[in-house]
Amino acid sequence: MSLHKLRLAAVPVTFSTFSSRLFLKPFPNTLTLGSFSRLVQRRKSLLFRAFSASAVVQDIPTTQTYDSSAARPQWKASIDFKWIRDNKEAVEINIKNRNSNANLEAVLELYENMVNLQKEVEGLREERNNVAKKMKGKLEPPERERLVEEGKSLKESLVTLEEDLVKLKDELQHVAQSIPNMTHPDVPVGGEDSSAIRKEVGSPREFSFPIKDHLQLGKDLDLIDFDSAAEVSGSKFFYLKNEAVLLEMALLNWTLSQVMKKGFTPLTTPEIVRSSIVEKCGFQPRGDNTQVYSIDGTDQCLIGTAEIPVGGIHMDSILLESALPLKYIAFSHCFRTEAGAAGAATKGLYRVHQFSKAEMFVICRPEDSETFHQELIQIEEDLFTSLGLHFKTLDMATADLGAPAYRKFDIEAWMPGLGRFGEISSASNCTDYQSRRLGIRYRPSEPLQTGAKKGKANLPAIKFVHTLNATACAVPRMMVCLLENYQQEDGSVVIPEPLRPFMGGIELIKPKLM
C-alpha cells in the first residue's frame, strides 16, 4: 500500500482521564471461578497499559484537552489504524515534516488497547454462546442451574466490556483525528521558504509614473469604501461601489463561463453548514486561532470556502464508477475570522472577513486524482494568463500544507502597489482524506471473473473516492491585481479585454468628475 493511502481527520488532539478510570468498574455480582480469574487478569493487564498510556498523554500540549463528560463524537472517520501501526515510521516522519502536533504514540497505545479489548469481548461472546448451546440439551437440575448462573455472569461481564470498548473507540477517534494526510513524495520538505517554483508566467510591468496601491486607486475612483464598512460591520469589511460592482460580477461570470467549458457543473451553495461538515473537510470550527465563524447556540458555522458545502453534497453515499468524475464550479460568499493576521501585508482587500469566490471541486477515482490535480492548476494558470497577470506557481512545502492536502500548488501574482507577490489561488489534492470522513465511496464497474456467479458476494469492493479543490477566482485579490497592474498615469484603470463583454462594454474606469 502506498503512503498516501492513509487518510485521517484534522481536529485538535484530545485525551481524557478515560484510560485511568475505564478499568475500575465494580465486578459483576456473580462470577464462576474461571470467569473471575480471566477478568482479574484482564484488568491487571489493561490497568498497566492505561498507566503507560497516561505517561504518553503528558506530552500532549496542555491547551488541548478533552472533557471526559462530553458527548460521544458526532461522526467517525474511516481510519485505517492497522495501516498506521504497520507504517509507523513513515507516519511519524510525515507528522514531523508537516509540523503537526499529532501524538502518534498515544494513537498506537490506544489502538493496541482496543484490539486486546475487542479480543476479550469476542472471547466472552463465544463462551456465552457455548453456554447457551449446552442449555438446549437435557440437563440435570443442578447442572442447568450452574449454567444459568454462568450465563448471567458472562452476560454482565460482556455488558461491562462492551461499554468499555465503545468508550475506548471514541477515545481513539479523538486522538487519531489529529493525524494529517500523508504527503506526495515530490513535495519539498520544510517551511514556506522551501516551496519550489513550478512555473513563472510574464514579467512585472514597468511604470513610467509613480504608482498607487489599490486602496488609493479605490478611493480616487470611488470604487471601495472601507471607512463606512468599518462603522457598520467592523474592520476588514468593505463596500464595493460603481464600476467595482460590475468588475466583481464580470470576474465571476467570466470565470464561470470559462470553467464550464471544461465540463464543470455550476453551483451556488449554502453559506451556513453544520460544524461536523466543517470538521469532516479538515477545518477546525472551534479554538482560539480558528478561521471559522461559529453561530452561538447552534451546531452551525459560516463557510470559509465553497469546498465545504460542495464536499457535503455526496456525504454518506456510494456512487457508481460510471458517474465519476464529478466536477463542480461553485460560487459562494466566504467568511473568515483571519485570526492572527496583522500588518501591512494584510491591508486593504488582500485579507478581509467576507468576500466572493468561485471554487472548483472534483470527485474522482483514486488513480485519476493526480491527473485532475494537473488539470485544475492548468485551468488556474490559463485564467490568470488570459488576464495578463505576472505570476508564479509554487509546489508548497510540507510545513505549509493544510491537514487534508496530499499536495498543494499555490499561485502568487505580482501586486505592484503592494510591491510584492501575493497568493491568489491554490489547488489541493486531498486524496481520500476528506472522503473517509465524509463517507463518499464508489463501486467499481469491474466485470465478474470468468465462472463467477452474480450476487452480492461477488460485487467489486467499494472504494473511497479522491477529492480535489482549487480556487478559480477569489474576487478581492483579483481586484488588487487588476487595479494595481492596469492603472494608468491619469489615474484611470484599463479593463482587461476578456472581461469587457461582462461589463457592458466598459473598457476604462475613469476618475469621477467633481
Question: Could you tell me the strand content as a percent range?
Answer: 15-25%
Task: Give the helix/strand class.
Answer: alpha+beta
**Biggest sheet, strands in spatial order?**
1-10-11-12-15-9-8-4
Q: Give the N-terminus to C-terminus distance in angstroms.
A: 69 Å
The counted number of beta strands is: 17
- Which segments are poorly predicted (pLDDT under 50) over 5 or more consecutive residues? 1-71
How helix-rich are the residues, as a percent range?
25-40%
Main pleated-sheet profile: 8 strands, mixed
Q: What is the typical, i.e. mean, pLDDT?
A: 84
**Helix tally?**
14
Itemize the secondary structure elements and their pairings:
Blueprint: H1 18-21, H2 33-57, H3 81-86, H4 88-97, H5 104-134, H6 141-176, E1 196-201, H7 214-220, E2 224-225, H8 226-232, E3 239-240, H9 243-260, E4 265-268, E5 272-274, H10 275-280, E6 300-302, H11 307-312, E7 317-320, E8 326-335, E9 354-364, H12 369-386, E10 391-395, E11 407-415, E12 420-429, H13 433-438, E13 440-443, E14 463-464, E15 466-474, H14 475-485, E16 493-494, E17 508-509
Parallel strand pairs: 4-8, 7-13
Antiparallel strand pairs: 1-10, 2-3, 5-6, 8-9, 9-15, 10-11, 11-12, 12-15, 13-14, 16-17
Helix pairs in contact: 2-5, 5-6, 9-14
